[in-house]
Prior knowledge:
The protein is mostly helical. It is 62% helix and 4% strand. It contains three helices and two strands; from the N terminus they run E-E-H-H-H.
Amino acid sequence: MTPGCGGEVKGTVRVISRHRDATGAGLLARVCRTVLLCVPSLALAAALLVAPAGAPAAADPPLTVEAAKAQIAALEAEAEAIDQQYLDVKHQLDRGRPS
């Protein structure tokens, strides 16, 4: 029986785990890996918390009364045309159905 690492105990070989040595990751490598993973995450979180929710949208200049009336007239004309198309289709459907 040999004392120390890998010594036999009653026919059994003792295995000592040396995980850190096997990966080759020393203290410096572990610190670098941690920093490389944490710093970008912290920077993103800080940017999201510090930045405003969104830049205010540039508002259109206020309309004059005449421009507002022109827009209303155009929308009413468009609505009237759509209403007329709806009524035409409805009449076509009503004529196609047996009474």
